[in-house]
């Protein structure tokens, strides 16, 4: 049989203590008792308890001292007993890390129920942490915040794939965490201590793609004043991430395929090929199979990089991840901005979960950081949420945008880029989108430097 749960009962009222003890012992718990603060402190210092039932008004001090002292050690394992009229104190106790509070006189059935609930909660949390630990053990994977089963399955698979040398194609909508996943795969692979070179295929102008990827010899073209190794040679013995591979021009695709098949790179105007040993990861937010069908992506290259595939589902298809991510980013934003925003009301949480998040985790992260930067403190209610979340419209993400809207967007992006002298990092930060999204927008809206 399982060991009985050990509870420390801190209560100065002897008859009450006695009756609670008897009742809990009959229900299968093991009980230790303390009648005052000093004794309880000593016991807590000496032993480990599964739960502490704590009266707050004690003859030699206030039970709150125990919370201050042991909250870190006993987080969520302290249940406060409170006389009527001190609900506010009880709420304060919960803020300090107590699990729950019970009003005196204590109804035995309610006490039993509260204990069961608390132990279930603690069990669930530790299951979740074990699972996280198991997946997170591999370097890099600990950066993922998730709760959904699909993500936990996906990350488990990814960790297994990481150990192989096969190419992996990571697909998913914008902002779902493709790059984060690629970094985790690299970090936990045997090449983890070698370089990970990320190449954004959408950002290289077509006429430079070849020299950028495979390098060139001095004098290969005007302005080639010295030899340049190219990304493939830089990534040798490590991993190369071909981000947004769907954007790679067809003629470069052919050259890439040759490199992948021969394991050799020939820089522009060089007569010598260099052997490379490279793990290839590719990411795309396009449906590459469809791109192949439309003749925009080479089938042979597709099969070469598609040895293993990982698809990260959009956030709206794994809503269980939304609140953990909200809490995670709010915590980070609070730290970064030295704020105390929160807690988030139940109603607001419901709306956050119901929203479709077309920009996925990135949109969620930006929303929280923007909100925090705006200076909010204290509880967060629905009135603090953007209108679009308060009045959700069906499938806002799939709406076709009007040409006028596209024009406005184009002008705006053009202006910001111009202001940043076409520094993409700066402009992306000013626009609040990722660099890769910016590159994509620039291509999509045909923005040119004036
Ligand atoms: N499960 C997650 N837990 C914590 N952070 C995440 C998670 N998923 C994504 N992020 C964060 O969200 C942001 C966007 O992720 P990332 O850049 O990897 O997305 P992406 O799929 O590559 O997007 P794009 O297609 O636009 O390039 C990053 O800041 C990343 O760290
Ligand atoms: Mg990306």
Assigned CATH superfamily of the largest domain: P-loop containing nucleotide triphosphate hydrolases
Shape assignment = elongated
Calculate Rg over CA atoms.
29 Å
Q: What distance lies between the first and last C-alpha atoms, to the nearest angstrom?
A: 77 Å
Strand order of the largest sheet: 2-1-3-6-7
In short:
With 450 residues, this protein is of the alpha/beta class. It contains 19 helices and 16 strands.
Word description of this protein:
This protein folds into four domains: 6-128, Response regulator (Rossmann fold); 148-313, Rossmann fold; 317-397, Helicase, Ruva Protein, domain 3; 400-444, Arc Repressor Mutant, subunit A, CATH 1.10.10. 31% of the residues are buried. The longest helix is centred in the N-terminal third of the chain and has 29 residues, at 108-136. Helix 13 runs parallel beside helix 15 and helix 17 crosses helix 18 (424-431). With 450 residues, the protein is of the alpha/beta class. The chain is built from 19 helices and 16 strands. The chain binds adenosine-5'-triphosphate and magnesium ion. Adenosine-5'-triphosphate binds next to helix 7, helix 15 and helix 19.
Core attributes:
single chain, 450 residues, alpha/beta, Rossmann fold, Helicase, Ruva Protein, domain 3, 4 domains, five-stranded parallel β-sheet, 19 helices, binds adenosine-5'-triphosphate, binds magnesium ion
